[in-house]
Amino acid sequence: MVLVGKLSTELGIKASSSKFYNLFASQLNDVQNLCENIHHTKLHQGEDWHGSDSVKHWTYVIDGKVHTCKESIEEVDEQNKKITYKLFGGDIDEHYKIFKFILEIFDKNDGSAVVKWSVEYEKINEDIHPPNGYIEYLNKCTREIDAYLVKA
């Protein structure tokens, strides 16, 4: 009967934490070119991909099925390299009242970095499964982005 949940994953990356963070903080529109499971993105509302009033439309694949949603940036903490994204509309609203991606990037003492993704959600009813496919999706995207940033 639990409707509210949180899933998290952590992955070590070879790129620097600042490079990885900056891609999401200032070049979010490039993510669609780096991740195989993202088919299309477009700016739906606003003039800037990173503005607090901007809304982006995403088309992506999870568990072999094409999904769509809209996304807005809810919170940015540059000092701690943390961004919270609110996802809504499309397929998200069919299953969830609340759905958020939280990106955090940490520097480790040995000079490497770790990317942590959290998915916070509230299901519309108890028959909805937790969004485990989104964790796989985020892991795959993180690996693809890291590989690109190491070469760049």
TrEMBL record:
What processes in GO biological process is this protein linked to?
defense response
Highest taxon listed in the record's lineage: Eukaryota
**InterPro entries with a match to the protein in the record:** Bet_v_I/MLP (IPR000916), MLP-like (IPR052006), START-like_dom_sf (IPR023393)
Report the residue ranges that make up the Bet v I/Major latex protein domain in this protein.
Answer: 2-152
Note the Pfam families from the entry.
Bet_v_1
Family assignment? Belongs to the MLP family.
What PANTHER family does the record tag this protein with?
A: POLYKETIDE CYCLASE/DEHYDRASE AND LIPID TRANSPORT SUPERFAMILY PROTEIN, POLYKETIDE CYCLASE_DEHYDRASE AND LIPID TRANSPORT SUPERFAMILY PROTEIN
- Name the UniProt record assigns to this protein: MLP-like protein 34
Q: Which organism is it from?
A: Cicer arietinum (Chickpea)
Give the lineage.
Answer: Eukaryota, Viridiplantae, Streptophyta, Embryophyta, Tracheophyta
